[in-house]
């Protein structure tokens, strides 16, 4: 049975309020397809029943499950490749030169989904910049979704997931086999500080960052929210730091203080002078 307009409206508003994710009219099919698994796992019968329960428990774990279900968590290891090439060839070498004296590097991955992006960066750093082992290295990775954060912290991936973009050499070096899955080795997992951060709300106190990855998340927000997030990133970035956006994202008409770094298709920005 299709979702009724009032229920769609209730979920749409709740999702906007809790995550800033915009569900335009016409996205009823998306809400239905994301809510049905929850209807079943919660032992309910219909989406109407789910909305009734949500009205009674609009804060707390059940509402969080509804928000989690409406997030799109598409990701993969080395997704889009170009940003990682830019990190390897320009950004990290430059940062290591600038910070050679203090030997500190800080990085935030602001929409880490199930963890492939932060683990990709960790492997890239370990493989190409082994001297970083002697640096004070701060690596925060965050997401809104409780379920995704659990996945990040566990670091467990199916064969299908590791087949998407992860070179075999890195798989055998950084992962261990666990039954039918692959798990990031504990010594690498513990190098990333996974936290829950809602980009649409007040951000927790974080150290100033050299690099901010904010890839493939702004697309879900309205213009006002995108502007606010880009402004917050500018406050958090060190003046010589770098920010990465997704391939379909831009700062154009949103924040004219960022300038694009000329590296093909990397979605890499600096704060202009
Ligand atoms: C498509 S994934 C992007 C993953 C990764 N950055 C990449 O490019 O492969 C988008 C992620 O943004 C998260 N997200 C959506 N709204 C958010 C919000 N308000 N605050 C923080 N994370 C959010 C979702 O939970 C999801 O995991």
The number of distinct helices, counting runs of at least 4 residues, comes to: 11
Shape: globular
Unreliable stretches (pLDDT < 50, length at least 5) are: none
The helix-and-strand class reads alpha/beta
CATH architecture of the largest domain: 3-Layer(aba) Sandwich
The CATH superfamily of the largest domain is known as: Vaccinia Virus protein VP39
Q: Strand order across the biggest sheet?
A: 6-2-1-7-8-10-9
Number of domains: 2
What is the rounded distance between the termini? 56 Å
Helix content: 40-55%
Give the tally of β-strands. 10
Bound molecules: S-adenosylmethionine
> Tell me, what is the CATH class of the largest domain?
Alpha Beta
Q: Compute the gyration radius: what is it? A: 20 Å
Give an account of the 3D structure.
Helix content is 43%, strand content 18%. It is α/β, with parallel strands linked by helices. The protein folds into 2 domains: 5-70, Orthogonal Bundle (Chemotaxis Receptor Methyltransferase Cher, domain 1); 82-271, Rossmann fold, CATH 3.40.50. It has a 7-stranded mixed beta sheet. The chain has a 3-stranded antiparallel beta sheet with strand order 3-5-4. Helix 11 (223-236) links the parallel strand 7 and strand 8 (237-245). Helix 2 packs across helix 4. The longest helix has 17 residues, at 82-98. The chain binds S-adenosylmethionine (SAM). S-adenosylmethionine binds at residues 19-21, 71-75, 79, 111, 113, 117, 143-145, 148, 197-200, 215-217, 220, 246.
């Amino acid at each position: 049975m299709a979702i009724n307009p009032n229920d769609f409206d209730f979920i749409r508003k709740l999702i906007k309020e809790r995550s800033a994710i915009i569900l335009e009219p016409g996205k009823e099919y998306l809400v239905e397809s994301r809510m049905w698994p929850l209807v079943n796992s919660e032992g309910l019968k219909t989406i109407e029943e789910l909305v009734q329960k949500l009205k009674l428990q609009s804060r707390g774990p059940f509402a969080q499950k509804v928000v989690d279900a409406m997030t799109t968590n598409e990701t993969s290891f080395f997704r889009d490749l170009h940003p990682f090439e830019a990190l390897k060839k320009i950004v990290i070498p430059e940062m290591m030169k600038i910070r050679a004296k203090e030997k500190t590097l800080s990085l935030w991955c602001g929409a880490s989904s199930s963890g492939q992006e932060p683990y990709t960066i960790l492997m890239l750093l370990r493989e190409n910049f082994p001297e970083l082992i002697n640096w004070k290295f701060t690596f925060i990775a965050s997401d809104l979704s409780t379920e995704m954060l659990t996945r990040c912290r566990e670091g467990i991936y199916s064969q299908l997931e590791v087949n998407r973009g992860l070179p075999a050499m890195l798989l055998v070096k950084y992962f261990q086999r666990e039954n039918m899955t692959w798990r990031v080795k504990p010594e690498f997992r513990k190098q990333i500080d996974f936290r829950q951060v809602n980009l649409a709300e007040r951000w927790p106190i974080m150290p100033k960052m050299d690099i901010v990855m904010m890839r493939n998340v702004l697309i879900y927000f309205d213009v006002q929210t995108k502007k606010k997030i880009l402004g917050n990133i500018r406050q958090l970035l060190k003046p010589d730091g770098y920010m990465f956006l997704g391939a379909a994202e831009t700062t154009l008409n949103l924040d004219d203080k960022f300038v694009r770094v000329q590296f093909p298709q990397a979605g890499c920005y600096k704060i202009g002078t």
